[in-house]
Amino acid sequence: MIYVLLSVVCSVLVSVLLKLARRYGIDIGQAIAWNYLVAGALTAMLLQPSLTTLREPGVPWLALIGLGVLLPTIFLALAASVRHAGIVRSDAAQRLSLLLSLLAAFALFGEQLTAFKALGIGLGLLALLCMVWRGRDGMAEGGPAGWLYPLLVFGGFGAIDILFKRVAQAGVPLGASLQAMFALALLVALALQLWRRLRGRSRFTARSALAGVALGLANFGNILFYLRGHQALPQHPALVFASMNIGVVALGALVGLLLFRERLSRINLGGVLLALAAIGLIARA
Fold it and tell me: What is the distance between the terminal CA atoms of the chain, rounded to a whole angstrom?
């Protein structure tokens, strides 16, 4: 379980780095671009994927291109969500995106709906509503961004997971698909940075580059340790899945509440607890 714990820490560390970015004058867009350069380099060095499979017929390039576009843009949405809604809501919304991939599994991939999964989906949707609930005071303080960005994170990461399932279903090895996705995401992130640079909204800073390296290490570590967790416990995929998702929601809540003093209403806290229950039910199914 040490691999799952390390994956949880890396996942929450990504949110912490995004939370601290504005405080230390870090350009998020630039850091995200560096992040994909680092993640791609680590994939090549540590996973050593064979890219010949990407030249074979049947490679779902539309799904890979979709992932290349979504990864950096949803990363920007996650950064905005952490800034406006906090780590607790953002991490929980990201993990609850599994509800969309579950619905897609039933509608597109022929998976059978069980009572536990149906109950988990219902609780998850209720949890999402509770977590984005701001109330009158919250709306006045944070505006619509406080609920809009978590919803974008929820929808975006759900779409990413569905596209990832499509790539896996096509038989593309994980290492090769990650290498392709990171390369495409880097191109999209660089294009966004070039557009911002031409409009005078961005300039290179060593601080943003270093933050991007740290972000890339945490992002890749999250993926690598999660995979290692499944390899170490091949007979218990549900345990790895539940531990990862519940761990991120729980640790994210502790970090947000204790380290950053994020303010949550009772309804928001209830949503976090419902999210934990929903993930547990889905994993049990």
Answer: 21
